[in-house]
Known about the structure:
Layout: H1 12-23, E1 34-42, E2 45-54, E3 57-64, E4 71-78, E5 83-90, H2 97-109, E6 113-118, H3 124-140, H4 147-152
Parallel strand pairs: 3-6
Antiparallel strand pairs: 1-2, 2-3, 4-5, 4-6
Amino acid sequence: MDFDPHASTIESSSADDIVHDVQNLGIKEEASTNITCFSDVFNDIPIHFQIICFPKQIYAWIGCQTARFGCLYAAASTRPNNIVSVTSLLGGTSDNTGAGIARRIVLKTGVPVTLACNIPKDSPMLEAHVEKKLIQKLIILGYTKSKSQAVIS
């Protein structure tokens, strides 16, 4: 088959061949990406959440009063002892608020977490409330370990 730069369409038989070839690659569809957004109020302070659940990873954003991105953390279990490692990707060098939340989410879910967090570092009650709401939503979404897995870890 010669390439014709002036041709504007692909012949239907060649398009069907391409679709057939792609279907025969054996690539399995993973579970779809799930995006969840919700808000809450704690002591008259609006708190906003966005959770993007991938098949084997969670991204979460927590915003307090504004839609500012905040600090970005990545947390995951590391081998050989399944200890959770957390690193600050953006900001957060002196603020452990988001790092602690990210670490505990990995312990609860068993999957890597990327967390953007914009909550004040001098408010432990707000931090506890935010983490509780996030964990509650992850439980509803089915992203927590069973009790037997938690005991093993």
